[in-house]
Amino acid sequence: MAKKVFSEHDIKALPQRVRANFVNSLSGFKSANLVGTQSTHGVHNLATISSAFHIGASPPLMGMIMRPHTVVRDTLENIKQTGVYTINHVHHSFVKQAHHCSARFGSDISEFDAVGLTAQPSSKIAAPYVAESFVKIGLELEQISLIELNKTEMLIGKIVEVIFHDEHLLEDGYLDIESSGSVAVSGLDSYHSTKRLARFSYAKSDIEPSVVPVSASSGTKS
Amino acid sequence: MAKKVFSEHDIKALPQRVRANFVNSLSGFKSANLVGTQSTHGVHNLATISSAFHIGASPPLMGMIMRPHTVVRDTLENIKQTGVYTINHVHHSFVKQAHHCSARFGSDISEFDAVGLTAQPSSKIAAPYVAESFVKIGLELEQISLIELNKTEMLIGKIVEVIFHDEHLLEDGYLDIESSGSVAVSGLDSYHSTKRLARFSYAKSDIEPSVVPVSASSGTKS
After folding, report:
1. Residue B69's pLDDT is what?
2. I need a surface site. Which of A65, A78, A206, B6 has the fewest CB within 10 A?
3. In this prediction, what percent of chain B has a pLDDT beyond 90?
4. Cβ contact (<8 Å) for A28 and B26?
5. What is the ipTM of this complex?
6. Does A160 touch chain B (CB under 8 A)?
């Protein structure tokens, strides 16, 4: 195996699409989610997002990065107008439909209908869930900040509702998103299922981490 | 399968550790990285990070979320002092060592030595790489912003160097991080290898995405 070193200059010199593929691969595996929103005219929208990330548990906050004036413009506009959105884990059974949602559809088109997924209304917020997803999260927008360095926007939402399957929640609060069929993304367009290597105990400096058993049937706390 | 709904109130009512496990599972699969830094006294530091995320390709920017006054305090301090750090993909062969780096070691201890990983100096920046990692990234700090909502800090770095293996880079710029043995994280402590489901073509509204072949031997552009 030959080792390769790319400098900042080498990256800059890559053709735009090649550079996008390369740099998008570097952060590592990413979450695969669909963002559900609704326009003020009631049109549903669904966008592919690989940039959702955990910010904190108390309060429960999730972030995502969006570039204005791109294919996510309707999603961004709907969130700004309604203040709410859903994040739905992409399940391995609908990766192709999920990727299709990254195409540019007209503002009057529901991506749910266009790609063949089912909009499921929320009793809590004015944004649709993806019925086929096994982990559905409802959020209220808390903050939008412009990242001046590249003019992208960071949205932070507070989690107000989570819909999942009882059997995937372990006693200690861990939601087994592998058992729930959630997938990971690499680069811009590669979807991956996962296989657990190990779950480890809380790390302490003076002792090697030990493996924690994961049993899907260990039930829930509540 | 019984469907379960957690409201904002239900999440808030969970014991702290349970809530942390639960909410950390919600964003989906996360990148597994080790952040390498060096103190002004020359002591190496290595921290487990699952919050690295892609911000943009031009310029190549990566973000990460850190909570001050926690186990990452040395990392944060080193980055503020030196302005540089490395991000190294966790390879499946050293997940236990990587997790061990999330323990609280003294400021005068090198986690490299403590957990059994090898510090590899960079010719470009004053921060160590993890020799055992197959994807190593050198960054210069561009920005630190406080997220007021929960007092975490978002660091944004510009990628100035990438070290990888030639055979993992495809012609179109996609770095095959599955072939490079990179792993994903879920929750706070679960590590997963991946299996590609498909790589899809650039999505267009009027046509279903098609599968793009991934060949590890397709070589590089340069």
Report:
1. 84
2. A206
3. 92
4. no
5. 0.95
6. yes
- pLDDT single digits (tens) B50-92: 999 999 999 999 999 999 888 889 999 999 999 999 999 999 9
* Structure-model confidence comparison of residues A222 and B7, the more confident one: B7
Q: Cα-flanking dihedrals φ and ψ of residue B54, to 5°?
A: -75, 135
- Please tell me if residue A144 touches chain B, with a CB cutoff of 8 Å: no
Does the beta carbon of A137 lie under 8 angstroms from any beta carbon of chain B? yes
pLDDT at site A219: 43
Which amino acid is residue B55, in one-letter code? I
Length of chain A: 222
Q: Provide the pLDDT for residue A222.
A: 36
**Interface contact flag, A173 B21, Cβ < 8 Å:** yes
**pLDDT bracket for residue B216 (50, 70, 90):** low
Contact call for A99 and B200, based on CB within 8 A: yes
Residue A95 contacts B where some CB pair is shorter than 8 Å: yes
Residues of chain B positioned with their CB less than 8 A from the CB of A221: 14, 18
Distance from CA of A127 to the nearest CA of B (A): 16
Q: Apex CA B110: angle with CA B109 and CA B115, to 5°? A: 110
